């Protein structure tokens, strides 16, 4: 992909992930999942698609830009810390596990790798929660928050499956249209 097109695609994906993040703040997720700190992670759909279509560095740039935009347009420094820490943990784990997908194509039926897109997404959701608990422990100087981690990890199975399913649909559509 030529640099001009790559920059344009990254810009569009950054805007989309920022919009998903803003939308998620408006959704009453607590009705579906009545647990503090649990979100669906809609912006992670864009991160997954970017990782599997553009690669790790563009996905990292999109994630970082989305977190900074969220902070700039209404988040506090604490929110930025949680967003970046969780996002970087998640992307790192997803990038590592993507290597165990056959040809890096976790969304295909022919995937003979150890992980599917769903597994990568669920592991990313779990890593996001671990990153946020780590940030909270540093910020509050308390290990007591580790007691809430099992609840978040169980919730990450559901949220990771949902975002993985949505990202898989997008990837199939993109690959079917010969755009990637």
Order of helices and strands: HHHHHHH
Give the uncertain stretches in residue-range form. Answer: none
- CATH class categorisation: Mainly Alpha
State the domain count.
Answer: 1
Summing up helix and strand content along with how strands pair, one would put the structural category as: mainly alpha
Q: Outline, from the CA principal axes?
A: globular
What's the mean pLDDT score?
A: 87
Q: Note the beta-strand portion.
A: under 5%
Number of helices: 7
Portion of residues within helices:
over 70%
Number-wise, the strands total 0
**How far is the first residue's CA from the last residue's CA?**
9 Å
**Which radius of gyration do the C-alpha atoms yield?**
16 Å
Largest sheet data: none
- CATH architectural arrangement: Orthogonal Bundle
CATH topology: Arp2/3 complex 21 kDa subunit ARPC3
